[in-house]
Amino acid sequence: MATQHINSALRAPAPSSRPYAKANPGYGKRSTPDQRPPRPDDFALLPERERYVAGYVDHLPDGAAMDIKSLAKSLPLYGQMAVGSALRALAVAGHLRHVRCPADAGGGRIRWITRTYWSRTARDNEWWVTFLGGAPAAPAVPQHPAAPAVPQQRTQEPEPAPAPEEAPQDTPGDARSPAYLALARLGRADARLALSAADCAALEEAAAAWLARGVDAEYLVRALTAGLPAAVESPVGLVRRRLRDKLPPLPPTAAPASATGMPEHRPMVECTECGAPGRPEALPDGLCRSCRTPGPSRTDTMATPAPPAERDVAAYVGTLRDLLKLP
Question: CA separation (Å) from 86 to 57, 93, 273?
Answer without folding.
Answer: 11, 10, 11
